[in-house]
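[job 4471] stage=fold_predict status=RUNNING
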Amino acid sequence: MKIGNKVSVVDEDLSGVVTSVNGNIVVFKDEYGFTYQYPKEKLVPKDEELYENIRVKKSRAPKSYF
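[job 4471] inference complete, writing structure tokens
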């Protein structure tokens, strides 16, 4: 993770932009200007480009016989 990357916190509705990385601790700022510190393993990259080329396969729902 680098400064300027967008990240989200695992299991929480919290995301922001990385402002600093100090060893295993990542500091990021949310859209309201609040800063948070989390270990790297609690964060995931929030990069829309990762999902641009992924195809979604739609399957038909199984028929219900009731």
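[job 4471] summary: The mean pLDDT is 86.
[job 4471] exit 0
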